[in-house]
Amino acid sequence: MAWIYLFAAGLLECTWSATMKMSEGFSKFGYSLATIIALAGSMALLILATKTLPIALAYPIWTGIGAAGSIIIGATVFKEHIPPMTWIFVVFLLIGVIGIKLTSGE
To answer: How far apart are the first and last CA of the chain?
Structure first.
């Protein structure tokens, strides 16, 4: 169950980064509220995941999901230009996250 919590926490990490941008500096109430709720949910799920998973494993996976997901959201939803070389490093990031999981013994 901890892995499900961790994955969901990573997805909420992506959600709050997107809604934070949509809040336009917290000037739009609905998006601002969504940001705060998603941020709190992400942290709560990370806390639940770390009840059984080591922080040395959970935190880098959580941040990796959030980082890669936010880049993908930026490119697809917000039409931000992501240079081709950046995509190579996103792949490296995902490989690193998968590698951490596979070598963790969890």
So the answer is: 12
